[in-house]
Amino acid sequence: MKFVAQHEGDVIPVEVERHGSGYIVRIDGRELPVDVVKAGEAVHSLRFEDGTQFAFVHQRHGTQHEISFSGAKAVIEIIDPLALRRKAREDEGGEAGDVTALMPGRIVRVLVEPGQTVSRGTGLLILEAMKMENEIQSPIDGTIKEVFVSPGDTVDSGAPLVHIT
Predict the structure, then answer these.
(1) Is the pTM of this model over 0.70?
(2) How many other CB atoms sit within 10 Å of the CB of residue 41?
(3) Is 34 helix (H, G, I), strand (E, B) or coil?
(4) In 3D, which of 134, 87, 82, 81 has the Cα closest to residue 107?
(5) Phi then psi for 81, rounded to 5 degrees?
């Protein structure tokens, strides 16, 4: 899974991959094999490959994660990069035209058809990317003029998916 972590104004790309009973965490070009064990409702134990181990408290409030350990506390916002790109595109304004793929993926389902009236936020299709199914929503109110994809199609980032007028 790929994420974007924001801490004190810094934006940090993070990738977490399951590896055996633990995880491989990639941050800023570094690769850290780790094991995480839940030791209570919010208490966890983190063990690194060299045997170093410490406990931390993790509390989540939406996308905000508060992590406390050894008397220190950090608040980190974890954001799905697809959601971040979608929000940026929506903030650019709602003009008629093509809705495009935000990242490469596979079309799982098409939820609309030509001639259908949609409102902003209406689900247009399901795109599987990074092993997650993402609903692509209409950025505007309008009418579906054309659907360029079918279930099973693979698309590149920027590929046109649907045209809305």
Answers:
(1) no
(2) 8
(3) strand
(4) 134
(5) -60, -30
In this structure, which topology does domain 94-164 adopt according to CATH? Answer: OB fold (Dihydrolipoamide Acetyltransferase, E2P) (2.40.50)
Token pair 């997650």 in the structure block, residue: 132
* Maximum distance among all Cα pairs of the chain, rounded to whole angstroms: 61
What is the distance of C-alpha 113 from the center of its chain?
Answer: 26
> Which residue type does 5 have?
A
State which fold the 2-79 domain adopts: Glycoprotein, Type 4 Pilin (3.30.700)
Extents of the domains making up the chain: 2-79, 94-164
Q: Report the alpha-carbon distance of residue 110 to residue 125 in Å, rounded.
A: 4
pLDDT tens digits, one per residue of 135-155: 888 988 999 999 999 999 999
